[in-house]
Amino acid sequence: MGLRKWFFAATYDRQMARLEREQLGRLREQLLGRAAGRVLEIGAGTGVNLPYYGPPVESLTMTEPERPMLRRLERRVATERRPVTVLRAPAEDLPFEDGAFDVAVSTLVLCGVNDQPRALRELHRVLRPGGELLFLEHVLSDDPSVARLQNRMNGVNRFVVGCDCNRPTLDSIGGAGFDVSHVDHVTLTKVPRFVRPGVAGTATASPGRRSAQPQTVEAAPHGAS
């Protein structure tokens, strides 16, 4: 398993390069242009979102649970002009105080977290009331025939790339106390049919719903200037 994670991290940018050029880069730019104030990104991977954060971002904190990805993220952050904090932490147990952030970002992450509802509750907890969640995810299709295909192929997808292609992520976002304020249904290109359905949008953390305090996790701060 360790070798597989190392290989995935080492080849991720190369595997995604064409999709980033032809579609994902544009979607990231449109979405992350909304980020402002104190921003948290979960599952930051190799740091592919870094170029899309603009001047309105006052502080940027990025978490990544996997060591192979974390090492690549730290190297990329070291070249940034802006200060960025990098922590090793899973989305399900974020080591931050309630209401610590104005904006949370999840791009192609909620498909792979171990416990999606818990991760979303944690994002709700660390956002201030009225804070925004910006998300770009591939999801379970509304088309029954495609959904059946996704369910059949999910085991293969999880074995190959380590994530589920059939998660009802929009429902999970609402169930965690967010109000989805805008969503675009997108069809991802250059990927198999069962991972094409996607969503990009924003959700607001409604006040009054907070999860329990997070458990203690290993955190390794890293700063760059």
Mean of all residue-level pLDDT scores: 90
Q: Give helix % range.
A: 25-40%
Distance from first to last alpha carbon: 34 Å
The CATH architecture term is 3-Layer(aba) Sandwich
Record field, number of beta strands:
7
The percentage of residues in β strands lies in 15-25%
Biggest sheet details: 7 strands, mixed
Number of helices: 5
Placed side by side, the strands forming the largest sheet appear as 3-2-1-4-5-7-6
CATH overall fold name: Rossmann fold
Q: State the low-pLDDT regions, or none.
A: 210-225
Question: Structural class, please?
Answer: alpha/beta
- The geometry reads as globular
- Integer-rounded radius of gyration: 17 Å
Q: Which homologous superfamily in CATH is the superfamily?
A: Vaccinia Virus protein VP39
- CATH secondary-structure class: Alpha Beta
Q: Give me the strand/helix succession.
A: HEEHEEHEHHEE
Number of domains: 1
